[in-house]
Design goal:
The chain is mainly β and about 110 residues long. It is built from no helices and six strands. The structure holds zinc ion (2 copies).
Length: about 110
């Protein structure tokens, strides 16, 4: 009697690499975007993904995983330097992981946010 062994396996796949602000390292670090996927397998060989569960960022500095939905300005992307925002009060430039202006302390969201 022949039969096919079908099962599933869960793997973490690198979706993209880039840089992020790591709250553990407190610095901008090389990072990867990870997707946890379940693959249908046949004879233990993964065939194709049947579900994507969650996405994470992994800091290559401390090897920790981070939830992209958390309220942390990771600023993940392929740019090694942080995106800058200009303060609406004093006009100075601030890196993306600062929620407040380094010069005057104004909120990044603006006064009427
Ligand atoms: Zn880190
Ligand atoms: Zn300012």
């Amino acid at each position: 009697m022949d039969f096919i062994i079908v099962g599933w396996t869960t793997r973490d796949c690198d979706e993209a690499t880039g840089y992020m602000f790591c709250p553990v390292c407190r610095a901008r670090k090389p990072a990867a975007q990870i997707a946890r996927k379940t693959f249908l397998t046949s004879f233990f060989i993964p065939l194709f993904p049947i579900a994507v569960h969650a996405e994470y960022y992994r800091c290559e500095g401390c090897r920790q995983f981070f939830d992209p939905a958390a309220r942390v300005p990771y600023d993940f992307g392929d740019h090694p330097n942080p995106v800058l925002w200009s303060c609406h009060t004093c006009g100075s430039m601030n890196p993306s992981h600062r929620e407040r202006c380094e010069a005057c302390g104004a909120d990044a969201c603006g006064a009427d946010a």
